[in-house]
Design goal:
single chain, 174 residues, mainly beta, Porin, 1 helix, 8 strands, 11% helix, elongated
Length: 174
């Protein structure tokens, strides 16, 4: 219960801060990725599921920071399903802003916190999820950018140990 209160507080504060500081550039995007979930079965044996992941993201950014809320879904071959809802905080480390650049690339480092839901044939569980991420944003048009990134997520769900994802997203900036 305490972790849900902390998550709700962090979400409210970050979104309020994002509206005030990032009002100049908002984003709406879709993401696809390849995700590996390391989990435990009923007898404690480690299982690894790797499958595509689909998601949506909504956020805001300026030249130094980006805050996004994303939701994603993965369905494993064995019938296990995973849903995530996360708040991401990214710091752009460096940007190529030379006037001769036709593509602006910005590497980033960040963290995320949120919720994960696990469902299999016999059980269903929810829990807190948190982790780190890094990647590269390519701004190819004034209103479109692409992200190539890696996310590593830990959870407090008893059947899910960790989640690692390689993600590509296309974002519309407005």
């Amino acid at each position: 219960m305490f972790s849900k209160i902390v998550l709700a507080t962090v979400a409210t504060i970050s979104l309020t801060h994002a509206v005030d500081d990032f009002s100049s550039e908002r984003l709406l995007g879709i993401e696809v990725g390849y995700t590996t979930v390391n989990s435990s079965n009923a007898i404690g044996q480690n299982i690894s599921n790797s499958n595509p992941e689909l998601g949506l993201r909504l956020g805001a950014q300026n030249k130094e920071w980006r805050t996004t809320v994303h939701a994603s879904f993965m369905s494993a071959k064995n019938g296990t399903k995973y849903q995530k809802a996360m708040i991401d905080f990214d710091r752009f480390v460096w940007a190529s802003l030379y006037k001769t650049d036709s593509i602006v690339f910005k590497p980033y480092l960040g963290g995320h916190v949120g919720w994960v839901h696990y469902t299999d044939d016999f059980t269903s569980a929810n829990g807190l999820a948190y982790g780190g991420q890094m990647g590269l944003t390519l701004n190819v048009l004034n209103q479109v950018d692409f992200d190539f990134g890696y996310r590593y997520t830990l959870t407090d769900v008893s059947k899910v140990n960790d989640i690692s994802s390689f993600v590509f997203s296309a974002n519309y900036l407005y």
